[in-house]
Amino acid sequence: MPEAARRELERCKRVADQMVSAHATLEQRNRRFAAALDVGLMAASFVLVIASVVALFRAAVQVLSIRPNLGVLTVSGSAFVLMLSIVEWRVRWKVIASRHGEARKEYSKIKLKIQRALSGSTPGGSLDVAGILEEYQQIGTRVVSIPEGKFLALKQAHLRKVYVSRLLDKYPFAIRWLVALRARFRHSVSAMADDVDD
Length: 198
Known about the structure:
Layout: H1 3-56, H2 58-63, H3 70-91, H4 93-119, H5 129-142, H6 148-170, H7 176-193
Helix pairs in contact: 1-3, 1-4, 1-6, 4-5, 6-7
């Protein structure tokens, strides 16, 4: 394989690996938001059902000397459920999570193809570098993109993950969060002391 093709494949593999991490993070984050919203809707609905049942059996509640203002509770709960429903309808966290999941799978597949090409273990023994690079380029047009405002934070998280992973390969019994904290501190001090302004 020509050296230029190898370098390009290695670059594409690095970027694909980063994209897998970024899309996985966005997928997980959006799934958590969607789950929290679903739980909020269920909890608010449950409270409304209880308030309605209590309103039906007001006499039983008055025997216990409890006099909650059920009208205010019911109206407030209904408004809260309506608000959560509108949020769920507008933000579509489940759909966004699904799209990032599809992107993660696409980049994982191309990353595997590139790794096989670099190691020389392509199925059938044929190596089509141009085809692999074309397939890599096409993924960006088919899948959801990383939001511009989140790109740098996701790239930083990926690079931290890779760096800490390498340190843990060297020191497998070290405490992960302590290794990450030490690396973060050392790199922050180094970045602040760096005089190079690009």
